[in-house]
Amino acid sequence: DAGITQSPRHKVTETGTPVTLRCHQTENHRYMYWYRQDPGHGLRLIHYSYGVKDTDKGEVSDGYSVSRSKTEDFLLTLESATSSQTSVYFCAISPGTGTRTEAFFGQGTRLTVV
Amino acid sequence: AQSVTQLGSHVSVSEGALVLLRCNYSSSVPPYLFWYVQYPNQGLQLLLKYTSAATLVKGINGFEAEFKKSETSFHLTKPSAHMSDAAEYFCAVSDQSTDKLIFGTGTRLQVFP
Q1: 8 Å CB contact between B74 and B58
Q2: Could you report the per-residue pLDDT of B65-108, keeping only the tens digit for each?
Q3: Percent of chain B with pLDDT over 90
Q4: The sheet that has A4-7: what strands, in order across it?
Q5: Distance of CA B103 to the CA centre of its chain
Q6: pLDDT of residue B41
Q7: Does A70 touch chain B (CB under 8 A)?
């Protein structure tokens, strides 16, 4: 299995509080992605990174920010959590894109905002 | 921007029957397409990928998919369903212009004995 660790695995937080989810990899892959999974919506891309300090927005980036100061770590921050951000969050890594795309997923973080 | 559409959010088959999960793509350039599977309470794992080398792609667990440019389709098939195939399946496309990996909304496969 690819070395991807998401933490925490479960979190309950209150509306309005900041929350940070961590994705750690041991594969030295260039690309890292954050998705959220919701019934009926599949996986929607929040943000992604194509290198250290290189990030870009996905399709549902409002209310989220990311940082990647090291190759191995990609942090997702909910600046002020809302109930609509209750979801399962997945991190994925890939050595490249196009023909080199080989995305490996973490086990997910279940976030509940109350 | 490239995208994929999965037709049918739920598919039910009997054990031993053909499995057909549908995926259509939208792309102005040759796409790179993928099928992933998600078992309950787990992350996603790659079943197979199309990268233009061959139109019929074989994956793990007896699954295969055929790239049809004329139909802009990349449907996933398995000749004979097994109970262990019950899971959610996602089609995805790698957007070459943005490096994004975009997923469809998923199809939940149920297999009845």
Answers
A1: no
A2: 999 999 999 999 999 999 999 999 999 988 777 778 889 999 99
A3: 72
A4: A4-7, A19-25, A73-78, A64-70
A5: 10
A6: 84
A7: no
Alpha helices in chain B (DSSP H): none
Question: Sign of dihedral through CA atoms B17, B39, A104, A60?
Answer: positive
Average pLDDT over chain A, rounded to an integer: 93
List of chain B residues whose C-beta atoms are within 8 Å of the C-beta of residue A1: none
Q: Are A105 and B45 in contact (CB < 8 Å)?
A: yes
Kindly list the distances between the CA atom of residue B2 and the CA atoms of A17, A33, B89, in Å, as whole numbers in the listed order: 35, 17, 19
Does position A100 have pLDDT exceeding 90, yes or no?
no
CA angle (B50, A91, A63) in 5-degree steps: 115
Q: Give bridge partners of residue B6 from the DSSP assignment.
A: B23
B49 CB within 8 Å of a chain A CB = yes
Sign of the alpha-carbon torsion through A3, A41, A10, A76? positive
Pick from A45, A29, A22, A42: which is nearest to A111 by CA? Answer: A22
Residue of A nearest to B32 (CA): A98
Is A72:A83 a contact under the CB 8 Å cutoff? no
Predicted confidence (pLDDT) at residue B5 exceeds the cutoff of 70: yes
Q: Is A90 on the interface with B (CB under 8 A)?
A: yes
Q: Is B46 on the interface with A (CB under 8 A)?
A: yes
Give the separation between CA B99 and CA B96, rounded to whole angstroms.
5
Which residue shows structure tokens 């609509």?
A84
